[in-house]
Amino acid sequence: MAAVMEGPLADLGAWKPDHCSLVKALEIVGTRSALVILREAYYGTTRFSAFARRIGLTERIVAGQLRHLTEAGLLSRRPYRDERGRTRDEYVLTDMGRDLLPAVLGLMQWGDKYLQGEQPPLLHVEHGTGAPVRVELRSETGRKVELEELGVQLNPEWRRPCPPADATA
Questions:
Q1: Does any domain span residue 6?
Q2: From 13, 21, 25, 28, which residue has the greatest number of CB atoms within 10 Å?
Q3: DSSP conformation letters of 51-90
Q4: Measured distance between the N- and C-terminal CA atoms of the chain, rounded to whole angstroms
Q5: pLDDT tens-digit profile of 132-154?
């Protein structure tokens, strides 16, 4: 079964998924290095050297991804001064980066279930109670929604973005 495509979307052959939000998101976070840097930011890593050390990627790749995630708005740079007095930047999550947490945890949860065998290596729990945390699809009423119950509609308020102005015109 699949989601219920509603209205003009019901005929999949009559439309194309232009301007897909998933594609736009993957342009920002669709690489292994971007996702593991975000994972580390969620775990509290903020400094360049710690990112490079913890995730085992080259400094060049880490620097490029930190720059990319910062330019995209998921991280921001914040200056700090180390004990030797040199000022450097650390990387902290923005609201945009924090809002991506359910998607990243959802991928981890999927990997725990299908790729880790009997037990996952880490548990994600509510800090105060120890209760397991799960990412689920729920409606605004709080009801759990299964794939077959998911409807997909055109958003009447969405407007196609204008193409960028031609610099030579």
A1: no
A2: 28
A3: HHHHHT--HHHHHHHHHHHHHHTSEEEEEEE-TTS-EEEE
A4: 50
A5: 999 999 999 999 999 999 999 98
At what angle are helices 48-55 and 59-72 packed, to 10 degrees? 120
What CATH number does residue 86 fall under?
Answer: 1.10.10.10
Boundaries of domain holding 141: 19-152
**Count of structural domains, the chain:** 1
Tens-digit pLDDT profile for residues 66-120: 999 999 999 999 999 877 788 889 999 999 999 999 999 999 999 999 999 889 9
Residues in CB range of 3: below 8 A, 6 or more apart: 147, 148, 150, 151, 152
Would you state the structure tokens that stand for residue 122, as one six-digit string?
């880490």
d(CA 53, CA 51) in angstroms, rounded, equals 6
pLDDT of res. 19: 87
Provide the pLDDT confidence category of residue 166 given band limits of 50, 70 and 90. Answer: low
Residue 86: the pLDDT is: 85
- Say if 5 falls within a structural domain: no
Q: What is the sign, positive or negative, of the torsion defined by CA atoms of 111, 114, 118, 124? A: positive
Residue 12 included in any domain = no
